[in-house]
From TrEMBL:
The lineage of its organism: Bacteria, Pseudomonadati, Pseudomonadota, Betaproteobacteria, Burkholderiales. Belongs to the HAM1 NTPase family. InterPro entries: dITP/XTP_pyrophosphatase (IPR020922), ITPase-like_fam (IPR029001), RdgB/HAM1 (IPR002637). Binds 1 Mg(2+) ion per subunit. This is dITP/XTP pyrophosphatase. Its cofactor is Mg(2+). It is an enzyme of class 3 (hydrolase). HAMAP family: Non_canon_purine_NTPase.
């Protein structure tokens, strides 16, 4: 089965391809099919993921899988949340992972409560008007480190410290990160849903 991934993020594609490999599903990035980015006007992960999945299905004629993920920092009332990818732009930096980490470390200076969660919501639709989208959510709690650690992963991985491992996501081997990350947890649920609902 071929499914379009409603994202142009190569990091997400690589992670999700690895996680969904047991199903024999072929994931194709929407950009590789000439499809641009969908609008993400909503304030929750699930609404944005659903909008992206419906957009990709409509423009490709394929079933679509979308991921909306982000960082929710307790001290900021759960923000940046759905605006995670654009976090740095609020502080005069250009959009990008490196600048996001820089801006976060600057904004967290002097803040004692460093608790945060990485959240991933995966939504799959068979068609643009699918009345029964598959929805899977994964969440990992940790703390924002005081400096970058590790070279793996992407996004906020270098500063997302996971107490269970005593390391940041960027310090973990890819297979360990994929098994325990927010996206990994959501993907395991999605794997089960796809098997049960679409691939019987």
């Amino acid at each position: 089965m071929k499914i379009v991934l409603a994202s142009n993020n190569r990091g997400k594609l690589a992670e999700l391809q690895a996680m969904l490999a047991p199903l024999g599903v072929e994931l194709v990035r929407q950009a590789d099919l000439g499809v641009g980015e969908a609008a993400e006007p909503h304030c929750t992960f699930v609404e944005n993921a659903l909008a992206k999945a419906r957009f990709a299905a409509e423009h490709t004629g394929l079933p679509a899988l979308a991921d909306d993920a982000g960082l929710c920092v307790d001290a900021f009332g759960g923000l940046p949340g759905v605006d995670t990818a654009y976090y740095a732009t609020q502080f005069g930096y250009e959009k990008g992972d490196d600048n996001n980490v820089r801006a976060l470390l600057e904004q967290m200076q002097g803040i004692a409560d460093r608790r945060a969660a990485m959240v991933s919501t995966l939504v799959a639709v068979r068609s643009p008007r699918d009345p029964e989208p598959l929805i899977a959510m994964g969440r990992v709690e940790g703390e924002i480190a005081t400096e970058r650690r590790g070279t793996g992963g992407f996004g906020f991985d270098p500063v997302m410290f996971i107490p269970e491992f005593g390391k940041t996501f960027a310090e973990l081997p890819a297979d360990v990160k994929n098994a325990h990350s927010h996206r990994g947890r959501a993907a395991q649920q999605m794997l089960a849903l796809l098997r049960e609902r679409w691939l019987r």
